[in-house]
Amino acid sequence: MLNQNMISEATRLTRAGQLVEATALLQRMLRGESASQPSGSTARGAPARLEPPTIDVKASVVEKKESRRTIRVSPAPLQRFDRLKDFPGLNLRGPMTRAPPATTDIAPEGTRFIAGTFRSANGSRNYKLFVPSHAQEKPLPLVVMLHGCTQSPDDFAAGTRMNFLAEEQNCFVVYPEQPSGANQAKCWNWFRTGDQQRDAGEPSLIAGITRQVMRDYPIDPKRVYVAGLSAGGAAAAIMAATHADLYAAVGIHSGLACGAASDLPSAFVAMRQGGGSKIADGGPTVPTIVFHGDRDTTVHPNNGDRIVEQSVKAAGLKAKVSDGRVPHGHAYTRTNLADADGRAVSEHWNVHGAGHAWSGGSPAGSYTDPRGPDATREMLRFFLEHSLPG
């Protein structure tokens, strides 16, 4: 049960630069304990350099149900926030070391995967762009892919294999890159109010990259989509909520709804229990496809339900629920919501037994679970069923 006094105190500690103390207090609250010491007794050391904080962590693929689950973050947060190891459900280890993916795992032969940079008054971001082999002058769809924490565009492309599917469907794909200078673990800062607004912060940079690619290449402006994993999934939800005029559909894997958190304490609570949305209704909705593992202990599966609730505002929708199983892999439940004309408004894939990893992904990239239904193929199929009106 949430203790508002403890949340308020954790917020005060965070703003004072005492992230270790704030985390310990949140830990006790989530265990149902009371604060072990009054706020006045907390040590008042010099504030640490905490802007921006790292609060998202990533899970490795669980090969067997009885295997221990490992969660890794970058070394700098561990040095500073060592008491995170006591947080329930987290077994922190050193940084994952893996060789960069081979070029043959990133994009198919005969295609291009090129680097670019976007700059504006709000900052700059690098990106990688996939150009299909049959990109003619006719306008083609564009998919914006937002990686998770500790990942890179190359790693995310290899793990999701989105470039290979995009080559089949003749689509462009762009991968904005979050640098460690913006977040030490390269997480998109989905939990900060300044990064949940149109024309400001990270949403303005992601939208700027999208529009730059649309200007420089033959892109169909009615068929532009955005997707992401974990912190990238939460950022994709923000892009859909703030740029419904730019994106025709959104895919969110193991993420959180826009407005699920506004600071570090509320982010921990949202990840642990599921967060609601503070974004006001009234704007247009963006068709949404959600993938989430029901054994995800990094981002609670309830967050997938919150995303669907946020994306569905119309009454009288028809629901269709179906069950399935990947041969020698995970079972899943798929819930479709459609309007009176049969147009899909949302899809929710609840992957049974899966943790915090891209469903059906390739082991060539990090944080993938090859035993799940193919999230990449299903997302791209869902995307191409939708286009902006007008």
Radius of gyration: 20 Å
Structural class: alpha/beta
Determine the fraction of residues in helical runs and give it as a percent range. Answer: 25-40%
Quote the beta fraction.
15-25%
- Taking pLDDT < 50 over at least 5 consecutive residues as the criterion, the unreliable ranges are 37-95
How would a textbook summarize the main sheet? 10 strands, mixed
Adjacency order of strands in the biggest sheet: 4-5-7-6-8-9-10-13-12-11
- In angstroms, what separates the terminal alpha carbons? 47 Å
The number of strands is 15
SSE order, as H and E? HHEEHEHEEEHHEHEHEHEHEEEEEH
Descriptive key words:
15 strands, 11 helices, alpha/beta, globular, about 400 residues
SSE diagram, text form:
Layout: H1 4-15, H2 19-30, E1 58-59, E2 71-72, H3 75-80, E3 92-93, H4 103-106, E4 112-120, E5 123-131, E6 140-146, H5 153-160, H6 162-169, E7 172-176, H7 201-216, E8 219-229, H8 231-242, E9 249-253, H9 264-273, E10 288-293, H10 302-311, E11 318-325, E12 331-338, E13 344-351, E14 358-359, E15 368-369, H11 375-384
Parallel strand pairs: 2-3, 6-7, 6-8, 8-9, 9-10, 10-13, 14-15
Antiparallel strand pairs: 1-2, 4-5, 5-7, 11-12, 12-13
Helix pairs in contact: 1-2, 2-9
Would you kindly provide a written description of the structure presented here, covering whatever features stand out?
The protein has 390 residues and is an alpha/beta fold. The chain is built from 11 helices and 15 strands. The longest helix has 16 residues, at 201-216. The N and C termini lie far apart (47 Å).
